[in-house]
Amino acid sequence: xxxxxxxxxxxxxxxxxxxxxxxxxxxxxxxxxxxxxxxxxxxxxxxxxxxxxxxxxxxxxxxxxxxxxxxxxxxxxxxxxxxxxxxxxxxxxxxxxxxxxxxxxxxxxxxxxxxxxxxxxxxxxxxxxxxxxxxxxxxxxxxxxxxxxxxxxxxxxxxxxxxxxxxxxxxxxxxxxxxxxxxxxxxxxxxxxxxxxxxxxxxxxxxxxxxxxxxxxxxxxxxxxxxxxxxxxxxxxxxxxxxxxxxxxxxxxxxxxxxxxxxxxxxxxxxxxxxxxxxxxxxxxxxxxxxxxxxxxxxxxxxxxxxxxxxxxxxxxxxxxxxxxxxxxxxxxxxxxxxxxxxxxxxxxxxxxxxxxxxxxxxxxxxxxxxxxxxxxxxxxxxxxxxxxxxxxxxxxxxxxxxxxxxxxxxxxxxxxxxxxxxxxxxxxxxxxxxxxxxxxxxxxxxxxxxxxxxxxxxxxxxxxxxxxxxxxxxxxxxxxxxxxxxxxxxx
Length: 492
What we know:
Keywords: Oxidoreductase. This is 1-pyrroline-5-carboxylate dehydrogenase 1. One of its GO terms (molecular function) is oxidoreductase activity, acting on the aldehyde or oxo group of donors, NAD or NADP as acceptor. The protein is an alpha/beta fold. A seven-stranded mixed β-sheet has the order 14-15-16-13-12-18-19, sandwiched between helices. Helix 5 (106-124) runs parallel beside helix 6 (162-176). The chain has 16 helices and 22 strands. Helices cover 38% and strands 20% of the residues. The chain is globular.
């Protein structure tokens, strides 16, 4: 597929009620290419006044006799499939905007477009398949339950997978008939605005989908606090997740689903093929520049194969190409911005100061952009900062372990519980670990196998609720119980 590395963003205004409009304040902010530090364009900066307008449009679109509410389920399916077709048509543009805005390699951005289409297609098939029950309650009563859309939903998505996180949020909400106010991350607003234009082209009624670009403390907070938003979905950091929950509680006790951070353990037993394990562990950590909530950021290797694994992991990291994300040979682009760049380098310094052995990397690449060398630490211990805190960058930490019981305890000894992995040929060990580890997803002899059909979410500080799969629908549904008395009539 032909690349378009200079695809111009067509849409830079807020999208409210099926129209692109400036913000009430007329403010704009820059979105920057992290590979070059150059401004791509300036985008409308929405705040509370704009969120109020978007929520009002979404509320009107959700009224009982609105065109959206009167649609049959299969009409919603048709709209979602049409949106997917338009995404496929505009795949080069969407991928290019994602690469410019986020810095991920163009080939990966193309895969993200494909996965986003798959996610929306999956949920397009659910529009007529969520249903209630008939409940046996007694001789003279009939009780049924109905599943109904919760109403106006606020969705706040992160910058690491901008298009994909949009699809994860839009898919179930549209399938069940909710209306949406979405705030993309301020670092990566461009694909969300392009998707808004495609939604209008697909034929979604006015007000069903609204996109407000802006900053978390203003636009994001306004969504979380809004009394007419009935549910808010947030993906991001733990501290901000707490703020979202607090705002939801203080406003209207709106529903909250959170997908937060992770410090996921990948355990490699001594019966594993070392070369295979090295490749799995490498991609588990370095994929998307390490900027993934479920990254395998704690690599535990059995003592019998530890030295061999470390040697090969270092060689693999050194071979990873870093640079221009539009270059087909490049596997790793820049970190998202200077804040994340500085944070990752500070964690690398911390690892060295606390006694971990820096095997390779650890420095900036080049003088322009936010590039960091693929970095590997060995001799990492569980009490170090790099072992406990989410780095969110290309830093692999390799630990040594001896027994199954030991590694289960150590794997669970963090505040997160998003994902985990294990590589072994021993099915009993694999299942013992999988059933004991505190994680929402556990992958055996693979990693990061996240599919539209599979529920995704975390334990402990990694959040609440699940996205994807059938479970993802529940975030957007209310259950109504209807009970009717049956009068027994006797003949005269």
